[in-house]
């Protein structure tokens, strides 16, 4: 009777462990799919792939401009802010080009190097842009990214999704997938050993 209860408990434990392993594998596959349809296209679409050195030539703050409507944006997303324009000399080509913060900055407003997030306090927006401008004047030489194919003549300060960041995003679903597979394999080994012991 006791042996029968132990076997039943063991089967329940194996079933739960198997469900856990399958659940982890399923969740990891869903995470892979989500990353693949949301983040990977932005990474592959970016043409600013080669790192070089940029030297600031001038950083000017012009009059306030309106943040233009991007795709799918609402009217309340339009807000005025000082327009910072940063011009740099690119070491790779020797050209004088405009610097943008990220790929998204160019899409949101090609006239400005930096587009702040919408904030209720306009003084805070102005202070942030002045801080960014002062940083460019203080640190005049820094790494930046350019388009080696020549499609885009301008450069960006940082990529939204660099290769290291993309690998880090894939790290967690990979660990979950490996853990799930390991649990399933251990359960199957346990079942095989139990069957072999019962047969003997």
Automatic annotation (TrEMBL):
UniProt GO molecular function: calcium-activated potassium channel activity; potassium channel regulator activity
Topology of the protein relative to the lipid bilayer: Multi-pass membrane protein
Any one GO biological process: detection of calcium ion
Predominant location category: membrane
Signal peptide segment: none
Transmembrane segments: 20-43, 166-187
Record keywords: Glycoprotein, Ion channel, Ion transport, Membrane, Transmembrane, Transmembrane helix, Transport
GO CC entries: voltage-gated potassium channel complex
Keyword Transport assigned: yes
A Pfam family hit: CaKB
InterPro entries: K_chnl_Ca-activ_BK_bsu
Keyword Glycoprotein listed: yes
Location in or out of the cell: Membrane
Family: Belongs to the KCNMB (TC 8.A.14.1) family. KCNMB1 subfamily.
Entry protein name: KCMB1 protein
